[in-house]
Amino acid sequence: MSRRKWTNEEIEEYRKEHGAIYYNKEDSNIFVPKALGIGWTLNWANPISLVLILVPFGLVFFKYFH
Fold first, then answer.
1. Pseudo-torsion of CA 45, 47, 49, 50, nearest 10°?
2. Residue 27: inside a domain, yes or no?
3. Where would you find the membrane-spanning parts of this chain (predicted)?
4. Does the reported pTM lie above 0.85?
5. Minimal CA–CA distance to 31: which of 41, 19, 44?
């Protein structure tokens, strides 16, 4: 399967079937619009989203606990 950027309409349809947490391996977007409210959330199937979360925690950990 090739990954491509999904449109906002496709993302909404995916959420109707799979729930609020966005985990879509076929979508190459890192940030997607939130299901409720204003703003953006992460596509948790994209490996870059994991890096975006772990790097700040790692920096804080090494600054205060090293």
1. 110
2. yes
3. 44-65
4. no
5. 41
